[in-house]
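Re: Re: ligand-bound prediction request (bumping)

Still looking for help on this. To restate: I need the protein modeled with glutathione bound, output as structure tokens. Inputs repeated here so nobody has to scroll up.
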Amino acid sequence: MKYRLYYWPHIQGRGEFVRLALEEGGADYVDVGRLPESEGGGRPGVARMLERAADGRTPFAPPVLQAGKLLISQTANILQYLGPRLGLVPKAEAARLWAHQLQLVLADLVVEAHDTHHPIAKSLYYEDQKPEALRRAENFRALRLPKFLGYFERLLEAGPGGGRHLVGKSLSYADLSMFQVLAGLDYAFPKAMKSLSVSHPKLAALQRMVSGRPRIAAYLASSRRLPFNQHGLFRHYPELDQG
Ligand SMILES: N[C@@H](CCC(=O)N[C@@H](CS)C(=O)NCC(=O)O)C(=O)O
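Reply:
Sorry for the wait, this slipped through. Here it is.
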């Protein structure tokens, strides 16, 4: 199967959760948004796909994965589809539901991290919502971030994977997504994350384990991995961070 991933070209964004799974799974895929516009890529290539009706199942927003005739959107839904095909989730139904459930929790965390810099509206500039962003980020750092990280750390402590994996005893797409969220949080909130890292050793170990996997390490070192930047989900505004 040759997959086509549709995602905006200049940010990691939510497309990155899908890319990590495709890369770790050794999948054959085209990152359509990163193709030149002359080859049907770039923003216009992604936008065109969103305008095209697919049996009345036009996706609302990217990332979108094309797999043969299927056009699948919603990050967690895409990973639920790819997981079994790329060997990134155990066979048992309970484990598959668990991986999907964790992916949805991570999606909630991603929205909350994003909303620290855009608490009022996505359509407004950060500079137009700075006082609200300061309040939101303070609350995020003090309450929400420790709550989410504490939850995942406890799962690793209690789980059957010997503290190494979130689902079962081997790597799953939930581990890859956990890695991506931690990397994004490190970029956006380096001081807060440094303070919190002391109490979350298993998460730190998971982050190292994923980044050291041969295919992931090769991907991270390649030009396919865009650096985090100030246009993505995770943004570093020093005034929103504190240790
Ligand atoms: N819940 C969706 C969110 C999709 C989403 O918000 N995509 C962003 C890019 S990361 C987008 O382009 N949204 C356009 C919009 O919301 O109008 C998912 O997890 O895939």
